[in-house]
Each structure stands twice: as C-alpha cells, then as structure tokens.
C-alpha cells in the first residue's frame, strides 16, 4: 500500500496492538511525539523503532516540538532545558552575531538530543513576529518583532538542526504573530492590511523560503481571504505561501484537531489538501479521529510526493561534534542573561 499524505500521533509511551495494525494498514508518511509519549531515552528509542517497523520504512519521519522554553517535549531529568526563542532575540539587540551563533549552537545541541533517539524532524524554527497584540500561545516562542531579526535567528536555528542531521519545519506560515486568539481553542482573525502583512509577517518567511518544510497557521487573514484560515485557503496558500513568500517546500498543516478548524475530520483533510497543503497533521492519537483522517488522506503523489522526497533529501549525517564541549560553550554564551538555559 502506498504512503498516505498524513502524519499521526499516538496515545501513549508504547505502541498498542490496535495502533500497530492501524499504522501498518494505513501507512502514514510520518509520526509526531508529545510529552505523553516520552518516559526515558531507551523507551523513546524503542518507540521510534516500533513506529518505523509498523510502516515498514526505516526513513519514516518522526517529528517532535522541541523548541526550548515552554514548548519542550523532552524534559529533565533525562534531557536539558533550553532557552525560548525570545532569549536569543534579546541578545540580538546588543550582540547580533553572538545571538545568531548561540541560536545555531543551541539548535545543534537539540539536534544531538533528537538524533540520539532516532527523531528526525523538529518543528522549529518559529518565525512568527512578537508584537504587542501577539497572543500568549506564541509569546516568547517568537524571536523578535522585526522580520530581519526573526529571519536571521530562525535561519541560524534551522542551520544548527541541519548540521545535526535533523530536519527543521518553519512555522506558522504565513505568520501567527498578529493573532489575538489561541488557535488551539478558537479561530483567530487578523485584520491587518495585506500590504502591512507583506512588509512584516510575510517578510520573515520570505527570507526562509528555501527551507525544506513549513507548517501552516490556522489563522484567517481577512484582507486576503475573510472566509477561511490559511490552512484551508487556496488564496492564502496559492497567492501568499507559494506566491509572495515563494515557499516551494513540503507544506504540512498545523494539527487538524485544533478547534480553529471546523467540519468533520474528513472535511478538514480534504479542504487542507484542496487548498494546496501537501500533508496533513493529526496529533492527539485519538483512534476514531485518526481513522477518519486516514480514510480521507490520499496516497502521497504528484508534486506533494516530489516535495516530500526533496525535503527528506536535505537530511545529512551529523558532522563530528563534541557535545560536552558544545554544551559548556553554549552555557557560557547564554550566561549572565535571563535565558534560563540549563545544559
């Protein structure tokens, strides 16, 4: 059976027999892990191996959100604490080169943590702007308020991941920073003029358009398409993401189970793919929902399959790396600030 155009979560720390059979029969393109799936390093390694065995593909992507700060699925005592994106943005204001070097090294260290577990994709960097109206769901996950700083630091983080053999996913394209609501809970509507968005929010992503993967924003941009969020808007994806921004990499939806989206899960899948997304993401591991997603998700084919193959081809083996020395160097870089890194 061909690979299908969806990424799936799972319920717990071990793959259940029904989950194994479901993944074997539906063949998702990849998987995503959350804190509920994490106990110890050995347990995660075994789980990752089981997931790939279930779909019969040793290169099946396994994703995680390991940003640093509040959004970190791997936590002490087994894994270090890393600073949030905003810490690098604050450092950038006085020492831009040092901040970019620290962002790159921090991401390289995260990549070492992930590669040790077999996790191949990190949903980083967050290229949303930090603005006065930005909802707390983004908050310090954003590097800064201006697109140039954001793009510079996001690029550094993406480079650090790639150097460590982990693929980055830039998010939330074309920008979540002006949203005043949490898309996990409701549908945000941004009323800023298109010209303003193109000069600010979209500009950060435009400078990152060559990255291999991006994740959409469940956000309505009323001056472009007042009726649909970016994820399900052919106009936003066609005119903005593929057009103004120029992103031609693999486009993955944000989680379809978020309350920003309406309709059945089958309708969400079909609307997302019809709008121009390549692969849909479903995170919560609820079997009934996953079954509906899988039933609606087609085989990965055509341009979507080409983009997926191109994205995976960007992965390269990690370069030689002294993790201990790098952690000491990273701690020194961030010392004296308010970054909160404990490496």
UniProtKB/TrEMBL annotation:
Q: InterPro entries, from UniProt?
A: GH (IPR017853), Glyco_hydro_3_N (IPR001764), Glyco_hydro_3_N_sf (IPR036962), NagZ_Beta-hexosaminidase (IPR050226)
Q: Name one GO molecular function term.
A: beta-N-acetylhexosaminidase activity
Judged by the first EC level, this protein's enzyme class is hydrolase
Show where the Glycoside hydrolase family 3 N-terminal domain sits: 30-296
**Can you state which reaction this protein catalyses?**
Hydrolysis of terminal non-reducing N-acetyl-D-hexosamine residues in N-acetyl-beta-D-hexosaminides
**EC code(s) of this entry:** 3.2.1.52
Biological processes per GO annotation: carbohydrate metabolic process; peptidoglycan turnover
Which keywords accompany this UniProt record?
Answer: Glycosidase, Hydrolase
Q: Which Pfam families match?
A: Glyco_hydro_3
To which protein family does this belong? Belongs to the glycosyl hydrolase 3 family.
What is the name of this protein?
Answer: beta-N-acetylhexosaminidase
Native organism taxonomy = Bacteria, Pseudomonadati, Pseudomonadota, Alphaproteobacteria, Hyphomicrobiales
